[in-house]
Amino acid sequence: MNRLETIFGLKGEATIRYLDGEFQVISSGGFVRCAVTGKPISLDELRYWSVEQQEAYASPAISHARFTELQKRTGR
Questions:
Q1: Residue range of the domain that includes 17
Q2: Terminal-to-terminal C-alpha distance of the chain
């Protein structure tokens, strides 16, 4: 059992394919990591992600900030 499992009761990191309005679990686990903060997000709590970037986000504010950052990089 690793530290995250002890603290959060999670069962390892999952691999996910992010789709429009849903996600598909590729390899099982209890959480994914926020692409910006690195914070573990329980699959039960996962609400925000980018299909285009295939990234998960811990909150709507983080999702918006990442979207804005990517838009500035691409000049859109």
A1: 3-74
A2: 45
CA 54 from chain centre, in angstroms, equals 8
Residue 67 has pLDDT above 80, yes or no: yes
To which residue do tokens 């950052």 refer?
69
Domain count along the chain: 1
Rounded CA-CA distance 16/55 in Å is 9
Report the distance separating Cα 20 and Cα 5, nearest Å: 29
Q: What per-residue confidence (pLDDT) applies to 9?
A: 57
For 13, the token pair is 């990191």
- Distance, CA of 55 to CA of 33 (rounded, Å): 9
For residue 53, the one-letter residue type is Q
